[in-house]
Amino acid sequence: MKYDPQQDRWVVVLGNREYGLHCGEYLELSVSQSRIACRLELDSEWYVVMQDTLFNLRTQDTYRVTI
């Protein structure tokens, strides 16, 4: 998953295609060797909700996810 500044949203790249994500979408974020279920949200910045924990996404970073 990477941030697309032109669309102002996160996208998942599969092959030659990009799929834009929206607020409220569920995904699994890979952290070390684990996959953590989370939900993508937007306030003043993009973040994911994991159980009761909020994790701000850094637009300059790329994240490994499963959708």
From TrEMBL:
Pfam assignment, any one: DUF5348
Organism of provenance: Desulforamulus putei DSM 12395
Alphabetized InterPro entries for the sequence: DUF5348
Domain DUF5348 stretches: 1-67
UniProt protein name: DUF5348 domain-containing protein
Lineage: Bacteria, Bacillati, Bacillota, Clostridia, Eubacteriales
Highest taxon of the lineage: Bacteria
